[in-house]
Specification:
globular; alpha/beta; single chain; Aldehyde Dehydrogenase, Chain A, domain 1; seven-stranded mixed beta sheet; six-stranded mixed beta sheet; 22% strand
């Protein structure tokens, strides 16, 4: 490998090195279609080394007072701010997001670090005096032990920072496995954490595919697994991890519906839908991938929506800051998404705006797919049932809100659902009845901030305690309940009586 495509290092026991492995996965700049690095596909041997480092550091880190752990996180937060633009450019280069989207990716991650800085407050327990006469009871939170995070490609900064800041704040040691497709941002994040003063061995990085993941899932010393990715893999992670005695939180995919009522503010509905469907080229589990129109709303919505989508400037985000949308992650993914559009067309849907034939003559190797609107989609179509995870907006038409909610509630997913309306009655009915963990009212992407849980339902989440917020703190800690009694002199005091 030449310098341009150097191997991505692992980080074990405070040392960076590129391991010798049998295979590598190329890391590409999706805008240019060029390989920029090679990710080593690590196996159980490297995972064993990372676990050993975590194990050696675990006791001292768990005994480190929460306020001292928080001070390291405060220093880390300032370093993240100092290197904010560098990190955003790294996300853009290896993922393809626009720079604005990449800044959002980093910013939302930094917000989790800010939340984790409150460790002394977040880790406080509970107590009650006199649960019975002369007997008190309290609850304290203690670390789980060695934890691991397995990350997807779509948020190279945010998703890792969903995991390790809270885990470390709670006193756990941690193994991070970034996506092999976008590992460079994760590596830089941990370089800054090392600079902030994190003791060696407390956090370690490994890379790889299924062999690496399985080693993490089955290692007897790893106590908890955090995962974000597709639903089939999330289900596998949950089932395998729990079978091996681990606590697991596994966030999966989605089909997120954006309802548009006839009384909606259509200007804001169009703006919200464009951002929800085509932000990050549709590669996010909170993408508003389906517009559900009620009654005459479709005929009001589609003309301005199609005009706005045709105006989206697709371009090479790593070298054109004026691009409104970048490429998808790979050529293979581009073909998969294009194939789903074609399947919808064959099954009777109408392609209103077609991005399959977008040409970028100055960047012929880039992984480009134009924004697409597919109208008259039915619930039985493949494109309606599968997570597209690309710049495609389905449009489904219903005569009334009742039938539309019934359709949405039949999906196996349950991440996000939104409604655009000026009716409090319709909004209340929607919020109450929709089977989704995150709801937006005149908000197209209802992704919560760091102090609320990322609350997916059904096949969008496997586990009990969600990422972020107080549920994240609960996931990375175990509660210990102590019941206290101190005898007064002569009360139950055998030694005193014998004396």
């Amino acid at each position: 490998m030449n310098a341009k495509t150097a191997g991505v290092p692992v980080f074990i026991n405070g040392e960076w090195f590129v391991p010798q492995t049998d295979s590598h996965t190329p890391v590409c700049d999706p805008s240019l279609g060029e390989v920029i690095a090679q990710t080593p596909m690590c196996g159980p041997d490297i995972v064993d080394q990372a676990v050993a480092a975590c194990d050696a550091a675990a006791l001292d880190w768990a005994e480190t007072p929460p306020v001292e752990r928080a001070r390291i996180l405060f220093r880390y937060k300032m370093l993240l701010e100092d290197h904010f633009e560098e990190l955003a450019q790294s996300v853009t280069r290896e993922h393809g997001k626009t720079l604005t989207e990449a800044r959002g990716d980093v910013r939302r991650g930094v917000e989790v670090v800010e939340y984790a800085c409150g460790a002394p407050e977040l880790l406080k327990g509970e107590s009650l005096e006199n649960i019975a006469r002369g007997i008190d009871c309290d609850v304290i939170k203690q670390p789980v032990g060695i934890c691991a995070g397995i990350c997807p490609y779509n948020f190279p900064a945010l998703v890792p920072m969903w995991m390790y800041p809270l885990a470390l704040a709670c006193g756990n040691t941690f193994i991070l496995k970034p996506s092999e497709k976008v590992p460079l941002t994760g590596v830089r994040l941990i370089e800054l954490l090392q600079e902030a003063g994190l003791p060696k061995g407390v956090l370690n990085i490994v890379h790889g595919g299924k062999a690496c993941v399985d080693a993490l899932l089955t290692h007897p010393k790893i106590r908890a697994i955090s995962f974000v990715g597709s639903s089939p893999v999330a289900k596998y992670i949950f089932e395998t991890g729990t079978q091996h005695g681990k606590r697991v939180q596994a966030a999966g995919g989605a089909k997120n519906y954006v309802f548009v009522m006839p009384d909606a503010d259509f200007k804001h509905s169009v703006t919200g839908l464009v951002d929800a469907a085509f932000g990050c080229a549709g590669q996010r589990c909170m993408a508003g991938s389906t517009a559900v129109t009620i009654g005459p709303a479709a005929d009001k919505l589609l003309p301005p929506l199609a005009e706005a989508v045709r105006a989206i400037k697709v371009g090479p985000t790593s070298c054109d800051p004026t691009a409104n949308m970048g490429p998808v992650i790979s050529a293979q993914h581009r073909e998969k998404v294009a194939g789903l559009i074609t399947s919808g067309e064959k099954e009777g849907a109408h392609v209103v705006v077609d991005g399959r034939h977008l040409k970028m003559p100055d960047y012929p190797k880039g992984f480009y797919l134009g924004p697409t609107i597919v109208d008259k989609v039915r619930a039985d179509m493949t494109i309606a049932k599968e997570e597209v995870f690309g710049p495609v907006l389905n449009v489904m038409r219903f005569e009334d809100l009742e039938s539309a909610i019934e359709m949405a509630n039949r999906t196996i997913f349950g991440n996000g659902a939104c409604i655009y309306t000026q009716s409090g009655k319709a909004a209340r009915e929607f919020r109450h009845r929709i089977k989704s963990g995150m709801v937006g009212i005149n908000v197209g992407v209802p992704a919560p901030l760091a102090y609320f849980p990322f609350s997916g339902w059904d096949h969008s989440f496997f586990g009990d305690l969600h990422l972020q917020g107080r549920e994240g703190i609960m996931f990375y800690t175990r509660q210990k309940v102590t019941t206290w009694r101190w005898f007064r002199q002569g009360e139950g005091d055998i030694w005193h009586k014998e004396k």
